[in-house]
Design goal:
With 65 residues, the protein is of the alpha+beta class. It is built from 1 helix and 4 strands.
């Protein structure tokens, strides 16, 4: 399934995670053959595409395209 995702990145500053001032948009392909929550599948795929851990971004919205 192809999904358009709006997300916000976070960066580590000292011991804190600080949100970037802007939101980003990316279109990704999510394999829905795995059992699980679609939101979690999107987070796993987006983390892989971005090359960052799931804790360094927050999914704001997503929509099937």
């Amino acid at each position: 399934m192809r999904v358009g995702v709006t997300f916000q990145l976070f960066k580590k500053v000292g011991d804190n995670m600080v949100a970037e001032k802007f939101e980003s948009y990316k279109e990704i392909d999510v394999d829905t053959s795995y059992k699980g929550d679609l939101h979690q599948l999107i987070k796993v795929e987006l983390a892989e595409v971005l090359g960052v851990p799931k804790q360094q971004f927050k999914v704001k919205t997503y929509k099937q395209i």
